[in-house]
Write a sequence for this structure.
């Protein structure tokens, strides 16, 4: 099968699950809400308003699984509020944890790898991807909520910035001019 949207594929979901559970443990968030939200957060990644669609899908799935309304809404809110482009503020600790975990997977070496997979998916050039670093990826560390995530982000952000500066130098042939 030809796999599209690999940057937001199952491996991304499982990494977000791992990171989110780690943050949830440290911050005292509800592990079950965070885990369900992480597993379902990118269900409709290839569609417009994917976070809202994924939240509705989660409501349906969890209702079928017999969860109570309060639990379901907690999961759905975390999913709705995780998206960078959705611009919805997370109101609960669990929503903040998911948002943080998703952003951590978009920075560091993993962020670089995923940015270029997205570039392939969208037909974006290297220069356009470098712009995407400026417009989004380099800003993510300032959009984190929990102290645990902020700490994890330090090294990842440093690497991202270093890569960004290096590739900019390559694009400008800086080493040919010295
Ligand atoms: Ni995601």
């Amino acid at each position: 099968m030809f796999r599209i949207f690999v940057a937001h594929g199952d491996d991304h979901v499982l990494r977000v699950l791992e990171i989110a559970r780690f943050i949830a443990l440290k911050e005292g968030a509800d592990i079950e809400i965070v885990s369900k939200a992480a597993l379902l957060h990118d269900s409709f990644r290839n569609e417009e308003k994917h976070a809202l669609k994924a939240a509705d899908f989660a409501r349906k799935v969890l209702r079928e699984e017999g969860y109570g309304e309060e639990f379901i809404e907690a999961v759905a809110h975390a999913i709705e509020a995780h998206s960078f482009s959705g611009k919805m503020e997370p109101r609960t600790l669990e929503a903040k944890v998911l948002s943080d975990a998703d952003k951590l997977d978009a920075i560091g070496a993993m962020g670089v790898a995923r940015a270029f997979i997205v570039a392939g998916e969208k037909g974006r050039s290297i220069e356009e991807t470098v712009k995407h670093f400026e417009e989004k990826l380099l800003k993510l560390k300032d959009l984190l909520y929990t102290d645990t995530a902020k700490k994890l982000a330090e090294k990842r952000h440093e690497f991202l910035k270093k890569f960004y500066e290096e590739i900019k130098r390559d694009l400008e042939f800086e080493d040919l001019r010295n």
The two ends are 48 Å apart (CA to CA). The chain has a mean pLDDT of 93.
